[in-house]
Amino acid sequence: MDSDKLREEGKKMIDFVADYWDGIRERKPLPAIKPGYINELVPAQAPSSPEDWSKIFDDLENVVVNGATHWHHPHFFAYFPTALSYQSIMADILSGGIAGIGFTWKSCPSMTELEMSSLDWVVDLMGLPEHFKNSHDGPGCGIIQSTASDSTMIAIMAARASHVERIKAEPTFMKWVSETGAGKTLKGIFDRVKTNKIDDEASGIITPYFHDPTVFEKFVMYCSDQAHSSVEKGAMLSAVRLRKLKATRGFLGNYSVSKETLQNAIKEDRARGYIPFMFLATVGTTCSCGVDQVDELGPICVEEGLYLHVDAAYAGTFALCDEFKYLIRGMEHVDSYNFNLHKAGMVNFDCSPMWFKNGTHISRYFNVDALYLAHEYQSTASDYRHLQVALGRRFRSLKIWFVLRNMGADKIREYLRRTEVLAAEFSKLILENGKFEHFVPQHLGLTCFRLKNSTNADNEKLCNTVNDDRRIHLVPSTVQGTYFLRMVVCSQLTTLDDVIYARDVIYEIADRLF
């Protein structure tokens, strides 16, 4: 394929995508396939000579589209949404076309600087603290991570390293190093440290200074028992203890961690000889869209010396609207904050902004300077590789830049408000026949409901039958042993008629089963 062929076939691909969107209502949200379906459509061996592009294009429907779950179908009500816009698609085309890898400023200056500027736009639009801005005089900064899971992992490692550094700076630690034989190696490391690692020339072993396992052996972090599964994975991979705090019904009638619960946990764990170092708050839990009140929990973290990270993956985007500003109360106490524009912000996956109160300090914990990455501007320019696990990165900021310029923030706000209105309508509709009840009050685009006077098995049977029917798609969840169904307004194509249709399908199947 040459540039002329790219122009010809590229136009066909754009038409294919546009036609897919125009005709998505004619499909069902879930495909009628079983695992391994691809084996009948794709040869076991790769071709040794090139195939004509037209043949590949002809396979798209059977191999790809017919085997896809259609996340943007107006009857897709599962998980949380994944955002999309034509402007974002255009940005991904340009990003793929440039094909740059922006690990340092010099490796792609426009990638770095447009990311810095576009994230400053988002700070202003959402009303986040000024110190999060890349253009602010202080040490704060913003970066686009791939996912909220990545951001959680980064936050845990940053919090862990920061607390290791704090402990090693305390006189009691130095006294222990001096007096115990076990501490001799650490004393040598401490005395000689100039960067974030020490090379043992004799053994070739590199000892991480900020990530020293001999120090964080007793570390414990906290999160709600409603926090996302990525928190548990992040703690596991970071080799720190995780204590899940029992959420109780409180703010908005939903499940969240109370300040008393956090205070008691810290007190108990210190009495046991553990070292609390972090609390991870969730704003918009996956199970029920509950909100940990950062304005109440933040001061406790500051007083107790805990790093505070906020995961607002789904709910965060709603703070673009004035009526949802309660979602960002207490941000002045936060060390790092993350949400997914690619969930409700009309920006395609992947685009997960993350901000640090002190990014300059945090960047030292991820700094591994190889000579081949050095450049003459590294003392004055930003190198985003120091705030992520991976080295390479895509030109994600193009999506924010295109969407905000060509769509405008007001259009995104309109979509968010319409999402909430449709969810509120469904929350009323599902109660009309008297068979169902809310598990928690509807919040943002999510309604949690279950059969009245029912068992978990009853609700599981209903959910499985609804999904086997394939006219709509829902997923369930459980909170502290109670099973319920989740209905989330996801697609920008969803209308009130679609919400009524979902209610009717659920009623029909429930009447048939019970």
Automatic annotation (TrEMBL):
<feature type="modified residue" description="N6-(pyridoxal phosphate)lysine">
    <location>
        <position position="343"/>
    </location>
</feature>
<dbReference type="GO" id="GO:0004058">
    <property type="term" value="F:aromatic-L-amino-acid decarboxylase activity"/>
</dbReference>
<dbReference type="GO" id="GO:0042423">
    <property type="term" value="P:catecholamine biosynthetic process"/>
</dbReference>
<dbReference type="InterPro" id="IPR015421">
    <property type="entry name" value="PyrdxlP-dep_Trfase_major"/>
</dbReference>
<dbReference type="GO" id="GO:0042427">
    <property type="term" value="P:serotonin biosynthetic process"/>
</dbReference>
<dbReference type="GO" id="GO:0030170">
    <property type="term" value="F:pyridoxal phosphate binding"/>
</dbReference>
<dbReference type="Pfam" id="PF00282">
    <property type="entry name" value="Pyridoxal_deC"/>
</dbReference>
<dbReference type="InterPro" id="IPR015424">
    <property type="entry name" value="PyrdxlP-dep_Trfase"/>
</dbReference>
<dbReference type="InterPro" id="IPR010977">
    <property type="entry name" value="Aromatic_deC"/>
</dbReference>
<comment type="subunit">
    <text>Homodimer.</text>
</comment>
<dbReference type="GO" id="GO:0006520">
    <property type="term" value="P:amino acid metabolic process"/>
</dbReference>
<dbReference type="GO" id="GO:0005737">
    <property type="term" value="C:cytoplasm"/>
</dbReference>
<keyword id="KW-0127">Catecholamine biosynthesis</keyword>
<protein>
    <recommendedName>
        <fullName>Aromatic-L-amino-acid decarboxylase</fullName>
        <ecNumber>4.1.1.28</ecNumber>
    </recommendedName>
</protein>
<keyword id="KW-0663">Pyridoxal phosphate</keyword>
<dbReference type="GO" id="GO:0019752">
    <property type="term" value="P:carboxylic acid metabolic process"/>
</dbReference>
<keyword id="KW-0210">Decarboxylase</keyword>
<dbReference type="InterPro" id="IPR015422">
    <property type="entry name" value="PyrdxlP-dep_Trfase_small"/>
</dbReference>
<dbReference type="InterPro" id="IPR002129">
    <property type="entry name" value="PyrdxlP-dep_de-COase"/>
</dbReference>
<comment type="similarity">
    <text>Belongs to the group II decarboxylase family.</text>
</comment>
<keyword id="KW-0456">Lyase</keyword>
